[in-house]
Amino acid sequence: MPTALESLTIDAEGLALHVRQRPSANAPAVLFLHGWLDHTHSFDALIAHLPETWRLVLLDFRGMGRSAHIGPGATYQFSDYALDVDATLDGLGLDAVHLVGHSLGGIVSQAYAAARPERVKSVTLIESLGPAGGPAEGAVGRLRSALNDARRPPNRKRYPSVEAAAARLLENSPTLTREAALYLARHGTEPVDGGLAFTFDPRHRRRFGMGYDEAQWMALQASVTCPLQLILATEGLRHDEALMRSREQGLATLAHPPLRIPGGHHVHMEQPAVVAEALIRFIR
Description:
By secondary structure, this protein is α/β, with parallel strands linked by helices. 34% of the residues lie in helices and 19% in strands.
């Protein structure tokens, strides 16, 4: 059973962010950041194995989970996710936290730790070694794609059942287990006319017009000063292997060699007790 959490709304410059937390006056305070198009419930199995004394905070990024969608004419940008973290810490009165990020959440964790070193005590990356920005010569194509995407109306596809929505997740994420897909679909959909739809804003599927090239990302990664641990899944997602090795070697504050745990990209859902044990050893 997942640990009982309370739901809160945090203001991010007028945008309502959904946060779940387990309040505690004790240290440590740990903020969990989910992956692209996921939500806070992706961490439910994991947090059930963490000490009751820890203060746990789980954030739904804007336009995902139960957080509000941006208004008409607006677009999502990577820096927005760092703003969401800032707003969460401010809204909850937290000076500094340990960050645990899966996939996109790990990318945001590194970026935020570089930009706000005084607010981050440690970073745990789960299946996350930075964005797939591509070479500099891809900048024009990226911008062109973003402009083309913006012309396409957002489409919230309808599904007749949770099982059908989970099947769609399995199509998009081949390493996801059926059990994890059903859990994500159950907590990540809502009733609409004609069936169920995912709660995330379909505009998140549009490509960013701007992104980090490799030199920029490595400069950002090098600015992380807090202790960091990296958890990888044996059957997880990988970009170019040489690129990933370079990024792994560039983690200057890596506290110990990467932990490789059997499982797929959502290894924290498949092996929650093992991942929790790694967090307990690392976070102080």
